[in-house]
Write a structure and sequence with these properties.
2 domains, alpha/beta, Helix Hairpins, two-stranded parallel sheet, 40% helix, 3 helices, Chitinase A, domain 3, 156 residues, five-stranded mixed sheet, elongated
Length: 156
């Protein structure tokens, strides 16, 4: 059995939009580029053709991945009030540091730059099932970090 992949409703919608763009915009544009490269003749030394074929392989791989992910993902819509779960917005604070806010998401939509951390990450795992006021310890390569949970709410 494959690993279960979790997505928030928002994350699934974003991936559906990406899939739609890949299929309706990028795939036809790449097909035109490939047709143009083929028209140039000798394919064995045609850099445009080889580049277009590589791009096509990547594009089709991404489309296949997104279709499979969306077909098999568990969409998280129900959020537990006050308890950290997938889809929760959590504000934590390490002693002596400024508070940080994260949304707990499935690994497929994790993006730390946007404040989305995976439920499979060390911090994500430590936070799951906890409440505001609790402290969690996270093992990192540089040692153990302790975070105090300041607030938990359902994400927007």
């Amino acid at each position: 059995m494959a690993d279960v992949k979790y997505l928030t409703e928002e994350g699934a919608a974003e991936l559906r939009r990406e899939l739609e763009e890949l299929k309706t915009v990028k795939r036809p544009a790449l097909a035109a580029k490939l047709k143009e490269a083929i028209a140039q003749g000798d394919l064995s030394e045609n850099a445009d053709y080889h580049d277009a074929k590589e791009q096509q392989a990547f594009l089709e791989g991404r489309i296949s991945y997104l279709e499979d992910l969306l077909r098999n993902a568990v969409i998280i819509s129900e959020k537990s009030a006050g308890i950290v779960s997938l889809g929760s917005e959590v504000t934590v604070q390490e002693e002596g540091e400024a508070p940080e806010t994260f949304v707990i998401v499935g690994a497929a939509e994790a993006n730390p730059r946007e404040g989305k951390i995976s439920n499979e990450s060390p911090l994500g795992r430590a936070l799951l099932g906890r409440k505001a006021g609790e402290e969690v310890s996270v093992e990192t390569p540089s040692g153990t970090l302790v975070f105090k949970i300041k607030s938990v709410k359902a994400s927007k």
